[in-house]
């Protein structure tokens, strides 16, 4: 019997309560077990296993290439690495093309990978999908504004909602996501004033990324926050420069290996010379190894 009490994971009800209390919500992406452990320990309440895993971890050119298999693999790792955070799985491109397919794939994330919620892109165009998934008992986070899975249609990453028609469309998208039953929605690359206006008109929290400070919470890609890439978007703030730290550490390691200073005495285990002499035979340590001859080691030798 375990002597350690189980840590209860946060639920969408807990997130709603924080929102109602006026507490701003911090969300970060996570893609692996050790990172998830650290973010969970730091008290981040929402961990998003984003399809951004494709571009920042897997080397894909766009998020469109990310598969269900990719996502399930990384969601499992993040769930294993966290105890308290609510883990949200990003539904990849074409995994929610119909209500039936959406419910089935969202179910895989909860039943097989252990996620507590899913996120899917689109406002009015995805309202019917969101409603079906929510009715199946699966919490859904929406995502409007710039939707990376539609990058080939949008053309390039850019702020959306600057024109009258575009702004009205985003407001309609936000309301559609809310009425479909989503517990929250991401606003990506939306003008500050519009994001604030949308937030004020919704009963669910908005999580901004490049959408100003008027949202109910914020999300950032963990590699941008930690400074792991050579470039970061304008909306990101680098809280560390791990790229430089890692480059310096690895360069120093290579230099030590090439110069023979690693491993040193602290990283080395030695044995009794007398025991080694018995293993190799009398006088072996004195004469040293013969470059042209290999000494056989008995099969029952304790190495």
How many strands in all?
8
* Quaternary: single chain
How much is the radius of gyration in Å?
A: 26 Å
Tally of contiguous helical segments: 13
Q: How many separate domains?
A: 2
Helicity range of the residues?
Answer: 40-55%
Name the CATH superfamily assignment of the largest domain.
Answer: Phosphoenolpyruvate-binding domains
What proportion strand? 5-15%
Strand order of the largest sheet: 1-2-3-4-5-6-7-8
Q: How would a crystallographer describe the biggest sheet?
A: 8 strands, parallel, barrel
Quick one: CATH class of the largest domain?
Alpha Beta
What's the shape? elongated
The sequence of SSEs as H and E is: HEHEHHEHEHEHHEHEEHHHH
**Class of secondary structure makeup:** alpha/beta
Question: Can you tell me the residue ranges where pLDDT is under 50 for at least 5 consecutive residues?
Answer: 1-5
CATH A-level architecture of the largest domain: Alpha-Beta Barrel
Distance between the termini: 38 Å
CATH topology of the largest domain: TIM Barrel
Task: Offer a quick outline of the entry.
The protein is α/β, with parallel strands linked by helices and 303 residues long.
Account of the protein in words:
With 303 residues, the protein is α/β, with parallel strands linked by helices. The chain folds into two domains: 12-238, TIM Barrel (Alpha-Beta Barrel); 273-303, no CATH class. The chain has helices at 12-20, 33-41, 53-56, 68-81, 99-111, 127-135, 151-154, 164-179, 192-201, 222-225, 242-259, 273-280, 284-287, and strands at residues 25-29, 46-49, 86-90, 117-119, 140-145, 184-188, 206-209, 217-220. The chain has an eight-stranded parallel barrel with strand order 1-2-3-4-5-6-7-8, surrounded by seven helices. Helix 2 (33-41) packs across helix 4 (68-81) and helix 5 (99-111) packs across helix 6. It is elongated and about 90 Å long. The model is unreliable at 1-5 (pLDDT under 50).
């Amino acid at each position: 019997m375990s002597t350690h009490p189980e840590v209860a994971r946060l639920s969408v009800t807990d997130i709603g309560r924080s929102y109602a209390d006026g507490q701003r919500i911090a969300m970060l992406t996570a893609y692996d077990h050790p990172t998830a452990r650290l973010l969970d320990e730091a008290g981040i309440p929402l961990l998003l296993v984003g399809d951004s895993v494709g571009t920042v971890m897997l080397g894909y050119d766009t998020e469109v290439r990310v598969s269900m298999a990719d996502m399930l693999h990384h969601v499992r790792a993040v769930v294993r690495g966290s105890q308290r955070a609510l883990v949200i799985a990003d539904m990849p491109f074409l995994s929610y093309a119909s209500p039936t397919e959406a419910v089935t794939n969202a179910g895989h994330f909860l039943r097989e990978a252990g996620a507590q919620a899913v996120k899917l892109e689109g406002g009015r165009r995805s309202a019917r999908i969101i409603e079906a998934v929510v009715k199946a008992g699966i919490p859904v986070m929406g995502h409007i504004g710039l939707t990376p899975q539609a990058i080939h249609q949008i053309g390039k990453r850019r702020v959306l909602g600057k024109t009258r028609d575009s702004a009205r469309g985003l407001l309609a998208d936000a309301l559609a996501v809310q009425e479909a039953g989503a517990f929250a929605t991401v606003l990506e690359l939306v003008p500050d004033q519009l994001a604030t206006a949308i937030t004020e008109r919704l009963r669910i929290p908005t999580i901004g990324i490049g959408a100003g400070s008027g949202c109910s919470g914020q999300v950032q890609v963990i590699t941008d926050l930690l400074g792991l890439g050579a470039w970061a978007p304008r909306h990101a703030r680098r809280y560390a420069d791990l790229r430089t730290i890692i480059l310096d550490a690895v360069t120093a390691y290579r230099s030590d290996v090439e110069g023979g200073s690693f491993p040193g005495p602290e990283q080395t285990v030695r044995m009794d010379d007398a025991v080694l002499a018995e293993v190799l035979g009398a006088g072996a340590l004195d004469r040293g190894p013969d470059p042209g001859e290999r000494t056989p080691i008995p099969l029952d030798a304790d190495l």
